[in-house]
Design brief:
This protein is of the alpha/beta class. It has helices at 10-13, 17-26, 47-59, 81-97, 116-136, 149-157, 170-175, 180-187, 220-229, 246-259; strands at residues 5-9, 31-35, 63-68, 102-105, 139-143, 165-168, 191-196, 198-202, 207-211, 235-238. Strand 2 (31-35), helix 3 and strand 3 (63-68) form a beta-alpha-beta unit. Helix 6 packs parallel to helix 8. The chain is globular and about 50 Å long.
């Protein structure tokens, strides 16, 4: 049976880092997701800083579910690519130092397959990051969203095994017009981390809208059943971008997951 380990994305709480950690613990989290761009920057984190953060988290009996490091451009864009790759490597090292094996970034939208140079650039970059991740003990996980599950699965098939994992985000799939259940069936074996998010499509406005967990199109019992078939042992991290009452709505999401 799938054992649900719940994380909370600290950025969703909109609180200073120490207060956010305490609030996450009070809301019943087992772990937290840390933003390596806005909360703790790898290039400025010393060994002493790592020890201090781990001590704060140990005192609250918290772990790190994922480290997010969302770059402004994808790894298929040549401009400034070396700097983005090195920054991602630093985020991987920081994640491992904090006891976490997952770094989340969004790759898409993926380049058109007709653009062979962009594809080759992307594959080479991801293979390089995959080798580094295996060396340091923290892998890159591509956040689902702009591309369908089958498109992402095709990308994975062209990479060396173990180069890239998946961060499964149901709301982002819905917002981009994709089926979370179809994507999960394609990608479940590679899921390293999952975000507990939900959304719906507004037919009148012709756009997607984030919703509270369980009120949108993400069928969580079905998604978790597919993960259970793969014996998933990672975290499910609550993310709430547009909440008017972050703590209250995240607490509700945690209760929803516990009830499952």
């Amino acid at each position: 049976m799938l054992q649900i380990k719940i994380g909370i994305q600290l950025a969703s709480l909109r609180l200073p880092f120490p207060k956010a950690l305490l609030t996450a613990r009070q809301l019943g989290a087992d772990a937290v997701e840390i933003d390596a761009r806005g909360e703790i920057r790898p290039e400025t984190l010393s060994h002493t800083g790592v020890r201090q953060i781990r001590k704060m988290m140990d005192d609250l009996n918290l772990r790190v579910s994922a480290v997010s490091f969302r770059t402004r451009r994808g790894y298929h864009v040549l401009d400034d690519l070396d700097r983005r790759l090195e920054a991602t490597r630093q985020a991987m090292r920081m994640a491992y130092d904090l006891g976490c094996g997952v770094v989340v970034n969004q790759l898409g939208p993926l380049p058109d397959e007709a653009d062979s140079s962009a594809w080759e650039t992307l594959l080479a970059a991801l293979a390089d990051l995959g080798r580094h991740g295996q060396k340091v003990g923290a892998l890159l996980a591509a956040e689902t969203g702009p591309d369908s599950g089958s498109a992402v699965a095709k990308l994975l098939s062209r990479l060396p095994t173990g180069s890239l994992g998946i961060d499964f985000n149901p709301a982002q799939l819905i917002l981009h017009g994709h089926s979370p259940a179809a994507a999960m069936r394609e990608l479940a074996a590679q899921v390293l981390h999952m975000h507990a998010t939900d959304a719906t499509r507004d037919l009148e406005l012709r756009r997607g809208i984030e919703t509270a967990l369980g009120r949108g199109g993400a069928e969580f019992p079905e998604l978790l059943a597919i993960l259970e078939e793969q014996q998933y042992r990672g975290y499910i991290t609550v993310e709430r971008r547009d909440a008017s009452d972050p703590s209250g709505e995240i607490a509700q999401a945690v209760r929803f997951l516990r009830n499952l």
